[in-house]
Amino acid sequence: MENKATYILAIESSCDDTSAAVMCNNSALSNVVATQKIHEEYGGVVPELASRAHQQNIVPVVHQALAKANIDKNQLSAIAFTRGPGLMGSLLVGTSFAKSLALGLNIPLIEVNHMQAHILSHFIAEDNYQSPSFPFLAMTISGGHTQIVLVKSYFEMEVIGETLDDAVGEAYDKSAKILGLPYPGGPLVDKYAQLGNAKAFPFPKPKVEGLNFSFSGLKTSILYFIQRETKNNPNFIAENRDDICASIQHTIVQILMDKLKKAVKQTGIKQVAIGGGVSANSGIRQALKEAEDRWGWTTYVPKFEYCTDNAAMIGIVGYLKYKEQSFSDQDITAQARYVI
Ligand code: KG4
Ligand code: ZN
Q1: What is the pLDDT of residues 88-141, one digit of tens each?
Q2: 234 within domain boundaries
Q3: What's the domain count of the chain?
Q4: Cβ–ligand 1 contact at 12 (below 6 Å)
Q5: I need a labelling partner for 304 at 20 to 30 A (CA). Which of 21, 34, 150, 228 fits?
Q6: Alpha-carbon span 251 to 227, nearest angstrom
Q7: Are 61 and 192 within one domain?
Q8: How much is the mean pLDDT over the chain?
């Protein structure tokens, strides 16, 4: 007998992207993301504005996700949603919406941990994409997260390293801001870095124990360096933009790779999967390729659409939990701090 298709509507609203996806088993039929532009002029996410924008976006985004998937809401088997971690005001919008819809349709509700979802996004079925096998190491790098996780099975994960202060995307964006680049500046630093000399300006790497990260010292040393140099030459940034960006990128990629190498050594696991917006970075991609050739690692980078915050990654966790009949009660609440 043929297996019945399971359709799950997934909702993500943990930070500044409102997203809805419809999954058919482990495939994404649609994955709609409304990115909030409003934060650009403030140089970072403003929580209150994010929450209001989610309220405006959620209904049209869900409508679009259903329409694109060509699925009627009455065909849905369950609703999955991001419970946390994230901004409380943002999480509340998705959580309340998911709870009401599940109640209205009388179908199960499935809570999802956003960090677990970044990791399990590698299991969304895609042509020509080989998912990692267990155990593997996952590094989640974005504007909000920097973690190395030992993944033993779908739901057995252990955080073995994380940032003690800024996330790596924040380090990129704050460095970009010092250089006068618009928010979010990470992609621009990456673009200019590819034109410059990575050895032009050495920046110190933080000394952090074990597999943890720290990026706030780097930001400060970049700030002092730029202040010092522009005092001598007001055109310093304009004249050296590409070399400064290449040097910043080189330092950040080295910080990430040093810890990954350490994690591989410590665990003996050479399968390394990355996720989060910073996975788009050309420097980290290049470094991972080199690690494959040099040290025999197997590396995994999902489609960019599944790297940044999106609901399909919530949907794949929803599907995996649905198979285990792991459902949530209607009295569940959003959780801003929610460890894996
Ligand atoms: O995952 P994401 O879309 O949102 C969250 O932070 O959750 O990640 C956005 C972050 C921003 O900090 C952005 O500057 C950074 O990812 N980013 C990059 C690149 N593309 C996006 N950083 C460096 N190089 C890139 N190519
Ligand atoms: Zn995220």
Answers
A1: 999 999 999 999 999 999 999 999 999 999 999 999 999 999 999 999 999 999
A2: yes
A3: 2
A4: no
A5: 150
A6: 19
A7: no
A8: 96
